[in-house]
Design goal:
Helix content is about 60%, strand content about 5%. It is mainly α. It is globular. The relative contact order is 0.09.
């Protein structure tokens, strides 16, 4: 439950998305980033370790999901550095990208010197032998025209691997051409340096060290004057509704906390627990401040708040959704098996393609590119012929065929890439595993070697690439289907589902529950426009902490109507099953109150609601539940 809840919070801060890039691209990298964040919270990984892993992430999506931090700002290293400073050091440096900061100490040169550390963190489609491929083409005397064709074909071969690799490359950062300050010249090379005004350590990368290493060490150091303060203050705000320093990410040297002694205590506590977020939060949750009734007055803009209690707040979109999910199903905190399967299938596809292409020699890559280039030309001729036929033939069937040929052109190229290029790579792996499996395990991993060995065993020969990957993904789906079938059979037994009518109601609820009654953390991140979560202000994850809790007419209509409430009143929802156990109308009313407001109904409330329940127990309990879900008591944290 902690991992699910705090995933929503950190996903907003870190701008985590399934489609990690514009247009929903980079689905595998997004899924890997989500998986890494959830697992980190589940393992209670110390906060400073999490941050270091993100800042030094280097590798493929299927190996290191933390690479999503850089992929989120795909090949925009200057922008990524500004986000890094904002999120982890509470410092707004973005103005200094173009000129000296007008309201803070940061110069444009400071900005570039810090950015030089992570400037080499580059998103690539990962053909490790690409330089050797170019040399091999030159050595073989490939003509300029054929080089062009091979280059285009290589782009198609690697197209599906885009957005799945981040590597620390040796790249030089220069000041902009319009640089106008006297401390340096336009286009001067910038060395990675931490400004003296922001560091006692003054860390500079050693000659044999990637600059991101000292960068990550400096940012997460206990000696860094901002890192611990920002982490402690962010979590205080999450718990109490307002930071001791607020806003939490606009700290300057002149910033004064509302309670300096409290901020000092929180910073010391975070250091004492070594950035164990659960241990730190346990201190806050057990404080008298947190356990007092919420403060219901507005805090004036710019005024200090001295925390007589947490601020009165409406639950976040995710908290409201998750509260409703908890009314609908047993064990709502259990991670979604369907979401896990989707992530597994995405990463399996990327890993197999990546490994089977990269095992090929430069000469084999050139051969594959030549083959794909030839196939591209044949496809183009086919499309052109079908399009030309339209001039003389107005038959709708001919028009459809021409459109379909053009539409499916790229998909057919991908199929040929997988069949020929990846197929050659797979055959090579099969041979290597047969002669030296331990060596292959070193360069890949045990699981991949096991998968390749299993498909050869199943087919009795080296299968086609499509057959092999299809089998691995099918096995993953079969495991999921088997677990789902067993879980449903156990539930039907437990709920005594016997008649055809019962089975139909159960099936309807189970299908809805598996697909929709899932914790917000396991739904698409962020949810699509129009979904309950977005209506209630879930972040679009474009900016840091971009969620909102503003009320709207759409929110009222969403809670009052729609399939969400109808499925809560299904006889197999958790709350409906609990209501069946009630021995009297008063017990039914108390069950609904305890389920939604965590308290029993007062005598006055029971007197008011009994007539509603007496008219029709089935409709009445639905009316009472619906009413309470629409109250401020349910929606607000008191």
């Amino acid at each position: 439950g902690y991992a699910q809840n705090f995933f929503n919070y950190w996903a907003d801060v870190l701008r985590v998305k399934n489609g990690i890039l514009p247009g929903g691209q980079g689905a595998a990298a997004g899924a890997a980033y989500i998986q890494w964040l959830k697992q980190s919270l589940h393992d209670n990984k110390p906060y400073d370790q999490m941050v270091r892993e993100m800042l030094t992430a280097d590798g493929a999506s299927y190996e290191d999901g933390a690479m999503g931090f850089y992929m989120r700002d795909y090949n925009m290293p200057l922008d990524n550095m500004a986000v890094t400073m904002q999120v982890f050091l509470g410092t707004q440096m973005v103005c200094a990208q173009c000129h000296n900061h007008p309201f803070d100490k940061w110069t444009q040169k400071d900005y570039y010197e810090i950015a030089a550390h992570s400037y080499g963190m580059t998103g690539t489609n990962n053909l490790a032998s690409q330089p050797d491929v170019l040399k091999a083409m030159t050595k073989a005397g490939v003509s300029p025209d054929e080089k062009k064709d091979i280059g285009k074909a290589l782009n198609e071969i690697l197209f599906q691997l885009r957005f799945n690799h981040v590597f620390a490359l040796d790249k030089t950062l220069k000041l902009p051409q319009d640089y106008q300050y006297k401390d340096s010249a336009p286009l001067a090379v910038v060395a990675p340096v931490i400004p003296a005004s922001f560091s006692k350590d003054g860390k500079i990368a050693k000659d044999d060290e990637a600059p991101v290493i000292p960068y990550a060490q400096w940012i997460t150091s206990k000696n860094n004057p901002r890192f611990t303060v920002v982490a402690a203050n962010r979590l205080w705000k999450k718990v109490m509704g307002m930071g001791v320093i607020d806003p939490v990410d606009e700290i300057t040297d002149s910033t004064v906390p509302s309670n300096p002694a409290l901020m000092e205590f929180l910073e010391k506590t975070m250091k004492d627990v070594n950035y164990d977020m659960k241990a730190y939060l346990r201190v806050l949750f057990n404080s008298k401040t947190y356990q007092r009734e919420s403060f219901t007055q507005d805090v004036e803009l710019g005024a200090f708040y001295y925390f007589p209690g947490p601020l009165l707040r409406r639950m976040s979109a995710e908290q409201i959704w998750d509260s409703i999910v908890a009314l609908g199903k047993d064990n709502p905190d259990e991670p979604s098996a369907a979401t896990k399967l989707e992530t597994q299938q995405l990463l399996t596809k990327v890993e197999w393609m990546d490994r089977t292409i990269n095992v090929l020699s430069p000469e084999e890559i050139i051969d594959g590119a030549r083959h794909v280039a030839g196939y591209q030309k044949e496809l183009l001729k086919d499309v052109q012929a079908k399009t030309a036929a339209l001039k003389d033939n107005k038959d709708e069937a001919v028009a459809r065929e021409a459109k379909l040929a053009a539409k499916n052109q790229r998909a057919r190229i991908y199929e040929e890439v997988e069949s020929y290029v990846c197929g050659n790579g797979l055959r090579k792996y099969v041979e290597k595993i047969a002669t030296n499996p331990e060596e292959v395990i070193k360069e890949t991993n045990k699981e991949f070697v096991s998968q390749v060995s299993e498909v050869v065993k199943r087919f009795g020969k080296t299968p086609s690439y499509d057959e092999a990957v299809g089998m691995v993904r099918q096995q993953q789906r079969e495991i999921f289907n088997k677990a789902q079938t067993e879980a449903r059979e156990q539930e039907m037994k437990k709920f005594e589902v016997v008649t055809a009518e019962n089975k139909a109601a159960y099936q309807k609820f189970s299908d809805y529950s598996d697909k929709y009654f899932t914790r917000a953390a396991d739904l698409k991140n962020p949810a699509p426009n129009g979904h309950f979560l977005r209506v209630y202000g879930q972040s679009d994850r474009e900016l840091v902490e971009n969620s909102n809790k503003e009320a709207s007419v759409m929110q009222a209509l969403t809670m009052m109507n729609g399939s969400l409430f109808r499925n809560l009143t299904n006889p197999y929802s958790l709350v409906s099953r609990e209501l069946k156990k009630a021995q009297s109308i008063d017990e039914m009313i108390d069950t609904i109150y305890l389920s939604t407001l965590s308290r029993s109904a007062t005598d006055e409330e029971k007197a008011m609601l009994r007539p509603v329940m007496e008219t029709s127990k089935t409709e009445g309990r639905g009316d009472v539940l619906w009413t309470l879900l629409n109250t401020r008591q349910f929606l607000f944290i008191q």
